[in-house]
Structure formats: C-alpha cells, structure tokens
Specification:
The protein is of the alpha/beta class.
Length: 390
C-alpha cells in the first residue's frame, strides 16, 4: 500500500444548501476546506473529486421510488412529496438537490473504493456522514445516506467484514437500518440519549435482528456528558468490539455536534476530546483493519468555531501530519472567516483541554454513575451476543 491519504473534495458539494436560516449551512464545508488549505494539508494528500453516485449505486441502499421522488423535487422543489420526507422543515427541497446529494454520496463511495483497492490507506470525505437518510425517505438534513452507500459498495466489491463507528451526537439510525440483519456489518453509535434528542432511537436494546443480531451497538449518553465521560464510553465499548470483529475496513463518522457550543444538542464535549477520538479511530484502523480507514464528516452546527477545526484535525490525522492542538490558526483563514460570516474565527486549534483525561473501564465502574450506567447497559445488551464478557 502507498501509505498516502486521499481527501475527497469538489467545491460543488457546497451546493448542498437548504436555504437561509437552516442549521446545515454549507459555509462549514467551505471554511473547512479553507483551513485544510491554510495548513498546507491539501499538498500532503491526494485531493480527488469523484463522480456523483449513479442510480445503480444509489439503489444499493435507496429504493427506486425514493430516488425518483428526489429527482422530481430537485427539478421542481415546490412539488416535493412530503411522504418521502422531502419539502419538510428539516429537509426543504431545493433545485439541484438530487445532483449535489449524489455528488456527496459519490465522494464517500469513491473514498471506499480507493481504500479497498489499496490505492491509499486512508480517505476522508468531510462533506459526507449524512447518516439519517433511510432507504425510502429523507431525514434529519440527509437526502442520500453516503455512509451506508460506501459500506454497501465495499460489500459489493467483496468485503466480508466492515465496521462502522459513529460518534455524531445523533444516533446513526439510517446506517443501522440499512444493515440491521447483515452480519457482515458491525454498526456502533455513540450519541446523546434518545429521550433528549432526535431521532429518538439508538437505545442499547437495539442490537440487530436475524443473522445480524449483535451487529448493532448503541451507547446512549446522558445529556451533559463531557470530555472524560465521552472518551471513557468510547474506549469502554468500541476497541473491544472492533478487536473481536476484525474488520477489513473501518468506516467512521465524525459529526462535530457533540461540542459544547453546538446549538442543536446537549453534550459538553470539547474539540480536544473530538481530536482524541479521531486519533483513537486511526489507531484502531491500523491495529485491526490493516490500516484501511474511511473517515466521514457528519453533523456540526457551530460552523465557524468548531466544525472547520475539528475536521481539519481529522484530515491531518489521516494524512500523517497531525496539527498540534496548541497551533495558532493562520491569520489568512481568520480573515476569510470574517469576510464570509462577519464573525471572528478561533485563534488556536484547541479548546484548552488537551490532553484529555479519562478513566479506563478496566479499572472499575460506579454503578450509581449515569455515564457508567449507559456503558453497562450497552455492554450487557450486546457483548454476550458476540461471545464477550459484559
């Protein structure tokens, strides 16, 4: 393998735009690309623009009638069929919606193909991670589920074991649904508890069905969970399951909306903890998946202070050129931020919480602690199904 990393980027993905006032502001993608470039990371990765996902690829996950509904809404947004989740408050229809959604999906599929074929070790598509889209409906700002499509393409190419780890603040419901009965895919989602956040799914008792029983894993974290608890929960569940599953490819989703500044959720995680989990995912890929790693973006609605820094760290880690937390943010990028948003950009690549301290599960747990209760519920629900000790 070459050891290079690949960054999927086509400026046209910023056309994924639900309109003024919608939380999914495409400026977050433009600013991330700008910060990646300001640090020169675009010169140490292969920057590739893949083709949009074609209909045969989209049908690996999505129903044909849904694809046709998206196309119709794309051509005439005013006639969007809300029975497919289109033209709603969360997913307003807009002209060109099918084309740009297929383009984002194509970047994730292209990333998966490049990693599977050994062209690169790692591939990043920070415009991707649209994990709520269902086979027959849009949901939660997501039209086509590029994460599920990337996994489905890996299976089509011959992969027998793919692990998906989702650390977005929202449950990765669409990816879980796509592979609910498929033993070739292990889906793990760490998210805010469904009692307090959309999509109200992702309970620890959701474990898959049929041949896929034990293949869906959900860690439902209490609102207010901060750095130490979030990183503890990750390490208490993810590494042991990945080690047991031995995936041929690791696909990860890095929604930045776990951050304490995010306006749509209630966790209290810092940029530094997000970076720590990105590093952990990279290490898991090398330890258990032969280095094959596809890393995606996801949610994240603090579009200036959080998203660009978080995903720039992700690109740096994948590229083998980690950006140290104490690094000063380039002034040229801060000027770009002000020109685009009239906001002041952050000054450093840290929230001042590096290194992140956390206690390993192996040293013991507190049965009265809400975070430990959440971890224990997941372990008890899933681990025995996989022949592991809870």
């Amino acid at each position: 393998m070459s050891g290079r990393a690949q960054l999927m980027w086509d400026e046209a993905v910023t056309g994924y735009d639900f309109g003024q006032g919608h939380p999914m502001d495409p400026v977050r993608l433009a600013l991330t690309w700008g910060l990646v470039s300001a640090f020169g990371l675009d010169r140490v990765v292969d920057v590739v623009a893949a083709k949009p996902a074609g209909e045969s690829t989209l049908r690996l996950v999505h129903r044909e009638d849904y694809i046709e509904a998206v196309k119709a809404a794309s051509a005439d947004p005013g006639a969007a069929d809300q029975s497919y989740g289109l033209g709603t408050v969360d997913d307003p229809a807009f002209a060109g919606m099918h084309e740009v959604s297929a383009l984002i999906a194509g970047q994730s599929v292209g990333a998966a193909e490049a990693v599977w074929r050994g062209n690169v070790d790692h591939a990043v598509n920070f415009a991707g991670g649209l994990h709520h889209a269902m086979p027959g409906a849009a949901s939660g700002f997501c039209i086509y589920n590029d994460a599920a499509l990337a996994i489905a393409r890996l299976l089509e190419l011959g992969a027998e074991r793919v692990a998906y780890v989702d650390v977005d603040v929202h449950h990765g419901d669409g990816v879980q649904a796509a592979f609910w009965e498929d033993p070739r895919v292990l889906t793990i989602s760490l998210h805010e508890h469904p009692r307090t956040l959309f999509p109200q799914t992702g309970w620890p008792q959701e474990v898959g069905a049929g041949a896929g029983e034990g293949g869906a894993v959900n860690v439902a974290l209490p609102a207010g969970t901060g750095d130490a608890g979030w990183v503890r929960a990750f390490h208490a569940v993810v590494p042991e399951l990945v080690a047991d599953f031995r995936p041929q490819v690791l696909v990860t989703q890095h929604g930045a909306d776990t951050h304490f500044e995010d306006p749509l959720a209630h966790l209290a995680v810092s940029l530094d903890a997000q970076r720590a989990v990105q590093v952990a995912c990279h290490e898991l890929a090398h330890e258990y998946a032969g280095g094959k790693w596809v890393a995606l973006g996801g949610g994240g609605y603090e579009v200036v202070d959080v998203v660009p820094r978080s995903w720039t760290h992700l690109v740096g880690i994948a590229a083998g050129r980690e950006v140290a937390p104490e690094t000063v943010v380039p002034e040229a990028w801060r000027q770009e931020v002000f020109a685009r948003t009239r906001q002041l950009g952050p000054g450093r690549m840290t929230d001042g919480r590096w290194p992140v301290g956390w206690a390993a599960w192996e040293v013991g747990y507190d049965p009265a602690d809400r975070l430990d209760q959440a971890v224990l519920a997941t372990r008890r629900a899933v681990f025995p199904l996989r022949g592991l000790l809870a």
